[in-house]
Design goal:
By secondary structure, this protein is an alpha+beta fold. It is built from three helices and two strands; from the N terminus they run E-H-E-H-H.
């Protein structure tokens, strides 16, 4: 979708004129027109934001941790997930 917005500088109030001058970086004359174009760009996707995961990827989550460290992680995750209630 391409759209152009054409603005006659002479028709702008002082506040909007100053705002445009700030954006452009220079003063505008009354006999000028500002044209703002909005153009959609197609950006090639170079890689997925999140790589695909398989069940195998998760089988080694605790690899290298001691039994005590695994117990600590488990206790913390149960607390965070509110799974600490004791069921019969």
């Amino acid at each position: 979708m391409e759209t152009d917005l054409k603005i006659d500088v002479a028709k702008l109030d002082d506040l909007h004129r100053r705002a445009l001058e700030e954006v452009i970086g220079r003063g505008l004359e009354s006999n000028q027109r500002v044209i703002i174009s909005v153009v959609d760009l197609t950006v090639p996707r170079t890689q997925d934001l999140r790589p695909a995961q398989t069940l195998e990827d998760w089988t080694s989550v605790f690899e290298g941790l001691s039994d005590q460290e695994i117990a600590e992680v488990d206790a913390f995750s149960n607390t965070r997930a509110n799974l600490t209630r004791h069921l019969p």
